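for the recovery benchmark. tokens below, seq after
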């Protein structure tokens, strides 16, 4: 029987940085601490993040500390969805319009 394909663990290059598949830090606005909070809440893949409502993410962050209220996860699902689909150029264009994960005019 054929073995199921495993997700590649080879690093991918995005905006000049190397990331592993499902590295949540590829999302503008997510750093190592927020990534660890999301992992603790069983959000470990780009697909899972893309399917999680921004309000639920806010609840996760605020349960850790009120200081996380400055973070705006509104675009994180969209970014994660593009990453999970391998739409790197679209993700790069979107992130060029973001500052700290927020859309800037």
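predicted aa per position
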């Amino acid at each position: 029987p054929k073995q199921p394909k495993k997700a590649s663990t080879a690093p991918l290059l995005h905006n000049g940085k190397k990331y592993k598949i499902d590295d949540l830090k590829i999302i503008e606005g997510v750093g190592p601490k927020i990534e660890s909070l999301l992992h603790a809440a069983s959000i470990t893949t780009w697909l899972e993040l893309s399917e999680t409502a921004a309000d639920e993410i806010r609840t996760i962050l605020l349960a850790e500390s009120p200081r996380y209220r400055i973070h705006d996860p509104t675009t994180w699902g969209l970014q994660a969805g593009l990453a999970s689909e391998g739409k790197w150029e679209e993700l790069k264009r979107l992130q060029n319009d973001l500052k700290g994960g927020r859309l800037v005019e």
